[in-house]
Amino acid sequence: MFSAVLAAVAGVSVALFTTGGTEREFRWELGLAAACVTFIVTLLMFLLLIITARPNPDYLGRGTGIRRSFGSRPGATDDDDGGDGDGDGDGDDGGEPRGSGRPGPR
Questions:
Q1: pTM exceeds 0.70 for this model
Q2: Inter-axis angle of helices 2-19 and 28-53, to 10 degrees?
Q3: What does the pLDDT profile of the chain (106 residues) look like in tens digits?
Q4: What are phi and psi for residue 14, nearest 5 degrees?
Q5: H-helix or E-strand containing 8?
């Protein structure tokens, strides 16, 4: 409803102001175009506000073996992977410590 009211106000305003006086013909086509554009833009703005205001579901923040906490310490407990730092649930940290020169198992 709010989009329709804004579109009507914009359409009438544009049609009146573009006519330019009483001696000229009423510019209804410009008013109709302005009303359509205003209606569509207002609807899109409201839809974007609704989408951005809605919170994400809880399951999107939980991991399934993918490390979502970049830069955490090896062996530290993460919320994402169920207990240990490497996501396999066995309690070890996944190999050599950082900076040892040898990569851990993949």
A1: no
A2: 150
A3: 999 999 999 999 999 888 887 788 888 999 999 999 999 999 999 999 998 887 877 777 666 655 555 556 666 665 554 544 454 555 555 555 555 555 556 5
A4: -65, -40
A5: helix 2-19
